[in-house]
Amino acid sequence: MVTFASHTHPGRVYDHNEDAIGIDAARQRWLIADGMGGHASGEVASAIVRDTVLGATDSALTYAVLAAHRAVAAAASDERLHGMGSTVVAFELTEQGGEVVWVGDSRAYLWRRGLLRLLSRDHSFVELLRDSAGMTEAQIRAHPQRNLVTQTLGIGEAVPSSVSVDLRPNDWLVLCSDGLNDELEDDEIRTQLQKDADPDIAVHHLVNAALAKGGRDNVSVVIVAITRDDLPNRWRQLQASVWLPMLVGVVGAVALGSLVLFWLK
Predict the structure, then answer these.
(1) For the chain, give me the number of helices (H) and strands (E)?
(2) How far apart are CA 86 and CA 47, in angstroms?
(3) pLDDT tens, 202-245?
(4) What value, to the nearest 5°, has the Cα angle with vertex 150 and ends 206 and 158?
(5) Residue pair 45/248 in contact by the 8 Å Cβ criterion
(6) How many whole angstroms separate alpha carbon 43 and alpha carbon 32?
(7) Which of 47, 131, 152, 261 lies most in the core, judged by the most C-beta atoms within 10 Å?
(8) Assign residue 2 a region: left if phi > 0, alpha if psi is -120 to 50, beta otherwise?
(9) For 177, phi and psi rounded to 5 degrees?
(10) What is the predicted pLDDT for the residue at 6?
């Protein structure tokens, strides 16, 4: 079975939580949606994203996210919800490996053998500045508009980004809302992950570390741990293609050695 864990917290500033975590273990689909638009509508937007993406059982992940975009936009036609939107980052385990799809600045990381790699790239104003102005990570983190997103589900035109992931035994996929990476730099996230072998403990330690640094936003984390039995067919076939010839070679060498010893007797 896939091992996974999640934790969310409203943070130390707000009395409500506009993040929504979605989990469909049978479909092997996980997501975090970070709503925006005020006390009520942000929660509504993220809930719509969660329910739509998890409910689109016959759709590929990218199409499920686009369906969520349309659903939030349709609900926002109610003037009480006008202007609401949501980010999303979603992961699905597939026969080919894994797929990550996102809109906005919620993130996906790959944790592998002590190394942390950012899989997603924020749809944000400062990310555009990184390319156009050559800003450093320190300058980006200090920028007054670092939380300004350039794409949002339910508002304007959403163009989801996606990346395929080749998975190996003991890999962790880490999804988070920006409440985590706004407080913790990647090195700090890595340090926290190095402390824990249990995803359930790790998600709580990550959230608590973000709260200790200020907790200025809602913070949510999902970890999906890949075990050997959970590996997609592609990886199992690769293992077979490597180990089977080696096994045949070893057996052949043993047999040849036995034959030589027989003739020498």
Answers:
(1) 8, 10
(2) 9
(3) 999 999 999 999 999 999 999 999 987 666 555 455 454 444 44
(4) 100
(5) no
(6) 12
(7) 152
(8) beta
(9) -85, 165
(10) 98
